[in-house]
Amino acid sequence: MQRNNFDVSIIYFKAFIMATANPYLNFNGNTEEAFNFYRSVFGGEFTTLQRFEGTPGCEHIPLNEQKGIMHVALPISSNSILMGTDVPSVMPQVTTGTNISISLNTESEEESHKLFDGLSAGGKVDMPLEKMFWGALFGMLTDKFGIQWMVNYDY
């Protein structure tokens, strides 16, 4: 089988595809309202809707906020997911500029560590990269330019 330049370019491109990036939105208590709105615009259904209530570590969250959204995911295209969370009042509240992170979904633990370590160099680790109760290796950081990142590898 003979390959043309386009075929070779596609193979070369596929060899370097790594993590996928998705927007992750932070809200001060109105994630559910916002995501119901986004669902009305984009259509589809939530693939994940998890509340703080009953999750490990939720005991520090005020009782009136435990029904808040810990994580919600809404596919908005065949390869993009809009995700979000409520920020409990015990954490710094978000403002325009701190209300979005870039979430990287990686292909391996090795890739997770490489990206996390690289992006956090000169920045600030907000949550160390660790195995989490939901079955993922996960961490959060702010890079030296003030951009917030989340790195996630699902086991």
β-strand number: 8
Radius of gyration: 18 Å
Strand order of the largest sheet: 2-3-4-1-5-8-7-6
What is the subunit arrangement here?
single chain
Please provide the ordered H/E string of secondary-structure elements.
Answer: HEHEEEEHEEE
Low-confidence stretches: 6-13
Total count of helical runs of at least 4 residues: 3
Helix content: 10-25%
- Specify the overall morphology: globular
Profile the largest sheet. 8 strands, mixed
Distance between the termini: 37 Å
Residue share in β-strands: 35-45%
Helix-and-strand structural type: alpha+beta
Mean pLDDT level: 89
Task: Sum up the structure in keywords.
8 strands, globular, 155 residues, 8-stranded mixed sheet, alpha+beta
How are the elements arranged and paired?
Elements: H1 5-15, E1 20-27, H2 31-42, E2 48-51, E3 69-77, E4 80-86, E5 100-105, H3 109-120, E6 124-131, E7 136-142, E8 148-154
Parallel strand pairs: 1-4, 5-8
Antiparallel strand pairs: 1-5, 2-3, 3-4, 6-7, 7-8
